[in-house]
Amino acid sequence: MKKILIIGMMMLSGTLAAQEDQTGTKQVTNEQMRQRPPRGERPGDRPGGPGGPGGMGRPGRPGGRHADITYSGTTELTAAATEVGKTYQSDKADESALLVSTKEAVVLSKPIVSKTGSSEGGDNCSFYGVNAAVLVKGGSTTTIKGGTISSNGNGANGVFSYGGNSGRNGAQGDGTTVIVEDTKITTTGDGSGGIMTTGGGVMKARNLTVNTSGRSSAPIRTDRGGGIVTVEGGSFTSNGLGSPVIYSTADVTVTDATLISNQSEGVCIEGKNSITLNNCQMTVNNTRRNGHAQFLDAIMIYQSFSGDADSGNSHFNMNGGMLTNRKGHLFHVTNTNAIITLDRVKLVNEDPQQVLLSVCADGWSGAKNTATLNVRHQQLEGTILVGSDSELTLTLTDGSSFKGRIDGKITSAAGNSVSTETGTVNVTLGDGSTWTLTADTYITSLKGDPSRIKTGGHHLYVGGKEMEAD
């Protein structure tokens, strides 16, 4: 067995503990909310990663700083290869069942991969792929067709593409590309994503069936150093705490896929990264807050300042398809500048509070809470919450409609008061778009024809002045 030693320095990342809902009502100011928790601690293990809203706290990261990274695999491919119907197996900690470390192309047809053995490598597993069932690095383009890949151990990601940029966000990778098609991937341990991309790697997935059960184990998972992930078709299901279906510190595009989260967020975007969903069917049942998260939500966009993602605009785009939310807020933005774009999406919000979007302080600090919601050919319904220290720009175009109210009275899932007044809200009604009020609403500015606002006996205040009734 050959070992490859890489010298690198890792940043300390704190392990976050899961936080259960509290009972009772307690008044907490926005400033207090923003001061707790410490910088870099996301809401549990980031959904699918360490410390973020659905999976925050990176299980399996007890190590902190790791200077020496040692890679090993039961089977190691260091040159071009084509293998058909082979079995790869490892039961040792910090050892992959299959390690591909070459610049040359590798093709695996109908592999059977089995990985057991937990790691205490922490960031080495999440950033660099130690202990993954299948790890590809070194610039190889590796194609996996069919077969099964399973892991049962902490820090044991299913298929890992590490691009070699040493975790430097925004830096170019070495060309490492994993193409995986028609494969079934199952992981059961904590910190064990289905398909995992870091360090500027590239992941191209098609018609996969991915199921994860552990904490911080997003089926589509990324981490420090980012990369490019494209997914076509398939089914992706997460069952663990802090394990959104997609956790993005990269650029992720998913088309024609079924996405299901049974305990965590559906999507989490951290910092200057993006997720685009095209004609996807997503169902989210976020039942348990993780780490420092103060809310339950389906789509979570935030910045932890842990170092895993650069600061900048966070983008969530959804074109067509259906998004079903069973519990909590449909969209939630905190501690970042988020741009949400919806076009012809069927939104189903089954939560009785009917919160469409919340923009407010949560468990992280260091940046403003700013959101832009742009909709085209879209129907919106529900309550939009904008905290007193937060800002929203809402633009409806191409015949879109909004039936609902905008308010600043916000209470966390634990019953704590987060805000009592509405922050800055700028609304634009484009041609053919309408707004039907369901309660009195205060906004900062309005662009567009006021006659397209149906007050229904309620009052709309713009810049402190009441708009004339329709």
Which helices and strands appear, and what pairs or packs with what?
Elements: E1 4-7, H1 30-35, E2 68-71, E3 73-77, E4 81-84, E5 87-90, E6 96-101, E7 106-109, E8 112-116, H2 123-128, E9 134-137, E10 141-145, E11 148-152, E12 159-162, E13 177-181, E14 184-187, E15 195-198, E16 201-206, E17 209-212, E18 220-222, E19 227-232, E20 235-238, E21 246-248, E22 251-255, E23 258-261, E24 267-270, E25 274-278, E26 281-284, E27 297-302, E28 313-319, E29 322-325, E30 329-334, E31 337-343, E32 346-349, E33 355-359, E34 369-376, E35 379-386, E36 390-397, E37 401-407, E38 410-411, E39 417-419, E40 424-429, E41 434-437, E42 441-443, E43 445-447, E44 453-454, E45 460-462, E46 465-466
Output the keywords.
470 residues, mainly beta, 14-stranded parallel beta sheet, 2 helices, 46 strands, disordered N terminus
Structure description:
The protein has 470 residues and is mostly beta strands. Helix content is 3%, strand content 45%. The protein is built from two helices and 46 strands. It has a 15-stranded parallel sheet with strand order 3-6-9-12-15-18-21-24-27-30-33-35-37-41-44. β38 (410-411) and β39 (417-419) form a beta hairpin. It is elongated, with a radius of gyration of 22 Å. Residues 1-51 and 53-67 have low confidence and may be disordered.
